[in-house]
Protein: DUF4440 domain-containing protein
Organism: Nibricoccus aquaticus
Amino acid sequence: MNFLMSSPPFTRRTAAGLLMGVLICLLPMTALAGDKEDVRAADLRRISALIHADRAALDAVLADELTYGHSDGRVQTKAELLAALTAGAVTYQSYDGPPPVVRIQETVALLSGIAELEATARGTQVKLWLRYLAVYEKRDGAWRLTAYQSTRLEQPPAGLR
């Protein structure tokens, strides 16, 4: 028996069903793209808050249980980071780099990237390159930084000098 000859005709209903199936499969990708932009925006708010010493803006994007690992090995809690920023123990002049790579798994986002940082820490001006990993978690519709770790690079990566 010839399968093609015995198949029911391709109807508008069949086409509509296939189209709906494809669209349903694409919805998670659309949501994922939106989440990537949202988490990048949250990270830009974090960076802006650090540069402008905006405690309220930084407080809004940091999770209460934050672990913030600096490139010199120090680790701070959210309270310690906010206190250091408020006291002027560290001031950030710039934090620039290419857009980070964003990976999202359900409600957790990993941002990995490279940045050039200029800051004054304990009276000493520093300019350095960092490789970092930032972990965000989506809670109540907002992305919050739960962990951050950076490491100092000896020299700027090729192509970013």
Q: What stands out?
A: The mean pLDDT is 86.
